[in-house]
């Protein structure tokens, strides 16, 4: 982790040739959870997302739709911005590569690399896949098709500026070997290592056959390669090149979150560009897996592309966020199905968490007029909970550091399971019948309320809206959750707080 005081996390910037789907929602929700968690710990956070608006793919799509590229990107960007509102994404900045601040940064960066001898003019003669915006050699093609997406590649022969990527091979290998945390998960690091060990060729970074992009400074016939352009967004938003003071507070980024298909761009191209510009590398690049839908690859031609707005509407925003991070260990591939989504909602959320919450609040209402009683901290049950809380905190801290969201949620669910079991064992309804057990009942109800307070804290990053509702029903405010790490320790529920029963947190879907 960087020693800077601001925690900087990014998502990829999404292509706006097409509307957003569940894959886009996935990375962005994951980044949002990390950003919210860091803020809860009291850290200043800069969370960046945005859109990748240049390149041949966008130009072609606009052409097919009878629009200018600018009209296309202006239309589609709104779909992304709307989705992030719906999903409650707390980004601090939204960057579009067509913004003036970005072309300034790309131009300056290009010139810097050029000054450092990293760029030369040559001729590119090989293959290009437009949907992937990727160059391939004839050997890499599979039956003339792109090895990545299987679609036909096109032959290109044109003058092109090249980036001397081969020159940075040793430096990159050394960096990856010295920083095991740089590329994650580890299986992906190994893939990248074997890729670099084979050969690292210089990279074509300009095109002359279309015009939708940022011109090469001093040679305007050339448009800068869309990936060279796009990766620099992470610097632009941090203030590069004009605002040195801001830039040095933000850069290097702590985490670039990406999908596995774009790892090579982030773990090979990007670090070598940064070496060439004399800038530090991001601390961590984490590649997550891909979603299939009902067991099949998602694609327009199959007509099975999942619109996150529809899912959020059917199942609720927070259950959808929970599902995305709970269902599949981060880093592995997973499958989205309506039955799995509904299963998580009905069992984990409605049965386990929702029931625990509503029966607890209703007992506090019934037996103590809604008022949180005074605990006895010397009581064994209180002490046991305090040990459990410390254990969970340790597990969650490690899990969040590793971006092991599914594991983190399983740890949090230990509290849910424990809560339900505790209520069954202690049977507050029996204690309530015996006046001599009043202190005992106070103790039990306090422990339950405190458990709920803790749960709301842990779930705030994952389900911000539903946790907000838990906090409200507990009679607390967000103020109580702004004490940094302290909110995760046992015993912070103020006695005397007045709880207020509200609607069920997660109604069952039948
Ligand atoms: N514009 C580039 C990124 C530039 S970053 C400097 C790009 N855009 S994209 O819109 O095509 O894809 C963005 C992200 O969506 C990638 O991280 C990709 O992995 C992710 N996904 C696309 N389909 C996906 C699934 N089916 N499942 C999970 N994530 C997927 O690439």
Summarize the structure.
The protein has 510 residues and is of the alpha/beta class. It has helices spanning 22-40, 56-64, 69-86, 100-115, 169-178, 186-198, 226-231, 233-236, 244-250, 263-277, 308-315, 317-327, 338-368, 380-401, 405-426, 428-431, 438-459, 464-473, and strands at 6-15, 44-52, 93-96, 119-129, 134-136, 154-163, 183-184, 203-204, 206-207, 215-216, 219-224, 255-259, 284-288, 291-293, 334-336.
Radius of gyration: 26 Å
Helical percentage: 40-55%
Number of helices: 18
Low-confidence spans: none
In total, how many domains does the architecture comprise? 2
The largest pleated sheet is described as: 6 strands, parallel
CATH topology of the largest domain: Rossmann fold
CATH architecture of the largest domain: 3-Layer(aba) Sandwich
Within CATH, the superfamily of the largest domain carries the name HUPs
Which overall shape is indicated by the principal axes computed on the Cα atoms?
A: elongated
Could you give the distance between the termini? 45 Å
Bound molecules: 5'-O-[(L-methionyl)-sulphamoyl]adenosine
Average pLDDT for all residues: 96
What strand order characterises the main sheet?
Answer: 3-2-1-12-13-7
How much of the sequence is in beta strands? 15-25%
Extended strand count: 15
- The level-1 CATH class of the largest domain: Alpha Beta
Walk me through what this model shows:
With 510 residues, this protein is an alpha/beta fold. It folds into 2 domains: 6-288, HUPs (Rossmann fold); 338-488, Orthogonal Bundle (Isoleucyl-tRNA Synthetase, Domain 1), CATH 1.10.730.10. It is 48% helix and 15% strand. The protein has 18 helices and 15 strands. It has helices spanning 22-40, 56-64, 69-86, 100-115, 169-178, 186-198, 226-231, 233-236, 244-250, 263-277, 308-315, 317-327, 338-368, 380-401, 405-426, 428-431, 438-459, 464-473; strands at residues 6-15, 44-52, 93-96, 119-129, 134-136, 154-163, 183-184, 203-204, 206-207, 215-216, 219-224, 255-259, 284-288, 291-293, 334-336. The strands form 4 sheets. The chain has a 6-stranded parallel sheet with strand order 3-2-1-12-13-7, sandwiched between helices. A hairpin with a 2-residue loop joins strand 10 and strand 11. Helix 5 packs antiparallel against helix 6 (186-198). The longest helix has 31 residues, at 338-368. The model has no long low-confidence stretch (mean pLDDT 96). 5'-O-[(L-methionyl)-sulphamoyl]adenosine (MSP) is lined by residues 12-15, 23-24, 26-27, 52, 230-231, 233, 258-259, 261-262, 290-291, 298.
């Amino acid at each position: 982790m960087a020693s800077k005081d601001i925690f900087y996390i990014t998502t990829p910037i999404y292509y706006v040739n097409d509307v957003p789907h569940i894959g886009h929602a996935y990375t962005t929700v994951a980044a949002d959870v990390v950003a919210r968690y860091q803020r809860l710990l009291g850290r200043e956070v800069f969370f960046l997302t945005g859109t990748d608006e240049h390149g041949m793919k966008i130009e072609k799509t606009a052409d097919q739709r009878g629009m200018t590229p600018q009209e296309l990107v202006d239309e589609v960007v709104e779909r992304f911005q709307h989705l992030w509102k719906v999903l409650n994404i707390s980004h601090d900045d939204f960057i579009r590569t067509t913004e003036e601040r970005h072309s300034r940064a790309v131009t300056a960066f290009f010139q810097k690399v050029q000054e450092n001898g990293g760029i030369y003019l040559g001729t590119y003669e090989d293959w290009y896949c437009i949907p992937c915006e990727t160059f391939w050699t004839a050997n890499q093609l599979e039956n003339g098709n792109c090895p990545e997406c299987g679609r036909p590649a096109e032959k290109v022969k044109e003058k092109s500026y090249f980036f001397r990527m081969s020159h940075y091979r040793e430096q990159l290998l050394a960096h990856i070997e010295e920083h095991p945390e740089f590329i994650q998960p580890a299986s992906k690091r190994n893939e990248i290592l074997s890729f670099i060990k084979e050969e690292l060729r210089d990279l074509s970074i300009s095109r002359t056959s279309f015009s939708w992009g940022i011109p090469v400074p001093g040679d305007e016939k050339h448009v800068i390669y869309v990936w060279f352009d796009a990766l620099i967004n992470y610097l632009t938003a941090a203030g590069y090149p004009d605002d040195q003071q801001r830039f040095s507070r933000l850069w290097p980024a702590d985490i670039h979150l990406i999908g596995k298909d774009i790892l090579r761009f982030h773990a090979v191209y990007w670090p070598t560009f940064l070496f060439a510009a004399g800038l530090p590398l991001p601390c961590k690049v984490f590649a997550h897996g891909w979603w299939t839908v009902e067991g099949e690859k998602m694609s327009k031609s199959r007509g099975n592309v999942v619109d996150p707005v529809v899912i959020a509407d059917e199942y609720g925003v927070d259950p959808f966020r929970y599902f995305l991070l709970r269902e599949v260990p981060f880093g592995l591939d997973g499958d989205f199905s309506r039955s799995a989504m509904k299963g998580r909602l009905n069992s984990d959320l409605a049965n386990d968490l929702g029931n625990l919450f509503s029966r607890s609040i209703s007992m506090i209402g019934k037996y103590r007029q809604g008022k949180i009683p005074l605990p006895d901290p010397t009581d064994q049950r209180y002490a046991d909970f305090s040990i459990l809380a410390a254990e969970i905190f340790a597990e969650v801290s490690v899990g969040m550091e590793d971006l092991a969201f599914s594991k983190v949620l399983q740890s949090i669910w230990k509290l849910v399971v424990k809560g339900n079991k505790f209520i069954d064992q202690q049977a507050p309804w029996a204690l309530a019948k015996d006046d001599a057990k009043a202190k005992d009942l106070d103790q039990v109800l306090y422990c339950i309320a405190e458990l709920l307070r803790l749960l709301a804290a842990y779930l705030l990053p994952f389900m911000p809206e539903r946790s907000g509702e838990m906090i409200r029903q507990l009679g607390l405010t967000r103020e109580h959750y702004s004490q940094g790490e302290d909110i995760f320790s046992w015993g912070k529920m103020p006695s005397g707080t007045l709880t207020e029963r509200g609607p069920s947190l997660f109604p069952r879907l039948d």
